[in-house]
Amino acid sequence: MTELNARFWEVFFEVYENLPRQGPGNRTCAAQALEFCRELRKSPAVLDLGCGVGAQTFHLSELLPGSIEAVDNHAPFIAILQSAAADRDLSHRIRARVADMANLEYQPGSFDLIWSEGALYSIGLRNALGICYGLLRPGGYLSFTDAIWRKENPPSSVKDSFDIDYPTMGSLADDLAVIQDTGFKLIDHFTLPDAAWWDDFYTPMETLIKELRDKYANDGEVSAILHQLAAEPEMHRRYSDYYAYEFFVARRPLASVDD
Questions:
Q1: CA 169 to CA 124: how far, in whole Å?
Q2: Which of 113, 115, 127, 201 has the most other CB atoms within 10 Å of its CB?
Q3: CA distance 160 to 146
Q4: Which pairs with CB-CB distance under 8 Å and at least 24 residues apart come from 152-158?
Q5: Within a 13 Å sphere around the CA of 78, how many CA atoms are in the beta-carbon half?
Q6: Which one, of 161, 125, 148, lies nearest residue 238 by Cα?
Q7: What are the φ/ψ torsions at residue 112 (nearest 5 degrees)?
Q8: Per-residue pLDDT for 71 more than 90?
Q9: How many alpha carbons lie under 13 Å from residue 57 in its C-beta half-sphere?
Q10: 97 touches 74 (CB < 8 A)
């Protein structure tokens, strides 16, 4: 496996900072997940964890009233989101800030809805759900997506690819068990459709990689890194039956022995 050195991350972020979103998802899926939050307050306080450049943040702002705290640990993502919120005259509703999901400074019970698309795994799903439980008011909702295995014994190239970033990735049953173990009540879940991978994520990624290959045609190191990044959408094209992104909607109970 090639070591992910500083040059890799420079090229990686040149790609990812210029994508509409940094992982699978779309507005239709966000709206579907919100339909399960049937008792959400009319003007909820929302926390978007791992917001990236804010694709889902803006979807939430369109689908819900109320305020949104958007958090990511990559400062350029936050700068892009802040600029876009100002351009859309949404700075009064969207507060984007650089922060570590594992060390948030919000008071317990601060939020009615915590939202996270493809980010909670980065601090360990069980740990992340414990943090979210504490930050939600009783009766608050948690909506998140997570990568899961759909079939056993994936090809070694697929397994190795996920092991780089998510070595503890489990099955649907594993995630459902973690949700239950951390005190949440599962409301519902659904699998993201293929369009949620391609329309705003992999298709623009492949277009941008092609442009950057022309830009760096004389730089062998960057060309090799771009080839490495291009392997991800190609892998999905060939092997998507082995894995998926699942959208989960869970709720902190209105009352518990700890409240």
A1: 10
A2: 115
A3: 18
A4: 154/239, 154/242, 154/243, 155/239, 155/242, 157/235, 158/235, 158/239, 158/242, 158/243
A5: 16
A6: 161
A7: -90, -25
A8: yes
A9: 32
A10: no
Q: d(Cα 150, Cα 38) in Å, to the nearest integer?
A: 29
The string of pLDDT tens digits covering residues 208-245 is 999 999 999 999 999 999 999 999 999 999 999 999 99
Total Cβ atoms within 10 A of residue 96: 25
- Is the Cβ–Cβ distance between 59 and 84 less than 8 Å? no
pLDDT digits (tens, 9 = 90+) for 186-203: 999 999 999 999 999 999
Which residue pairs, CB below 8 angstroms and at least 24 apart, start in 210-214?
A: 212/11, 212/14, 212/15
**All domains of the chain, ordered by start, with CATH?**
27-194+243-251 (3.40.50.150)
Instruction: Give the whole-angstrom CA distance, residue 237 versus residue 214.
Output: 23
Residue 17 main-chain phi, psi, to 5 deg: -70, -15
Q: Which two tokens stand for residue 239?
A: 């092997």
| CA–CA distances in Å: residue 96 to residues 80, 86, 223, 231 | 10, 11, 33, 32
Q: Any idea what DSSP says for residue 18?
A: T
Query: 47, 68, 247: which is closest to 134 by C-alpha?
Result: 47
| Local confidence band at 255 (pLDDT 50, 70, 90 cut-offs) | confident
- Cα 178 to Cα 42, 83, 139, 148, distances in angstroms: 29, 36, 19, 13
C-alpha neighbours within 13 Å on the C-beta side of residue 242: 16
Residue with tokens 């936050």, as numbered in its chain? 78
CA 42 to CA 31: how far, in whole Å?
Answer: 15
| Largest CA-CA distance found in the chain, in angstroms, rounded | 64
